[in-house]
Amino acid sequence: MPTRPTRPARTDIVAGRLEDLVVMLTNYRCGHCTGHVEGITTNDTTGAMHARVEHDTGCPVLTGSVSPIPDTFRALTDQQ
After folding, report:
1. In the chain, at which residue ranges do the beta strands (DSSP E only) sit?
2. Are 24 and 15 in contact (CB under 8 A)?
3. Does residue 10 surpass a pLDDT of 60?
4. φ/ψ of residue 71, rounded to 5
5. How far is CA 62 from CA 1, 46, 66, in A?
6. pTM for the complete prediction?
7. Angle in degrees, CA 25, 49, 69, rounded to 5
């Protein structure tokens, strides 16, 4: 029987407003690895848009050692 991974290979960013999600998609970078946005999907039931962030193996965000919240806020406020 195949075993399931015990840790996620990604984190998700969810935003209600399209404008907020576009800013995050453009600016998000993980501060602990080379993680960045790899894709976006829309939930057919709720309409919420989800941005998928792929992180490097061993990234402390994936292990739960640190929060992705600071990187998310940085992405939202980055005015590059």
Report:
1. 10-15, 36-42, 49-54
2. yes
3. no
4. -65, -35
5. 25, 26, 8
6. 0.64
7. 55
SS3 63: helix
DSSP letter for 46, please.
T
Torsion over CA: 58, 62, 67, 69 (sign): positive
End-to-end CA distance of the chain: 48
Which pair of tokens denotes residue 56? 């490097």
Distances in Å between the alpha carbon of 79 and those of 23, 24, 76? Answer: 9, 11, 8
Token representation of residue 35:
């993680």
**CA–CA separation, 23 vs 34, rounded Å?**
18
Query: What tokens does 61 get?
Result: 């965000």
Rg (CA), the chain: 13
Identify residue 20 by its one-letter amino acid code: D
What confidence tens digit (pLDDT) does each residue in 54-78 have?
889 899 988 889 988 888 888 888 7
Q: Which of 75, 68, 73 is nearest to 27 (CA)?
A: 75
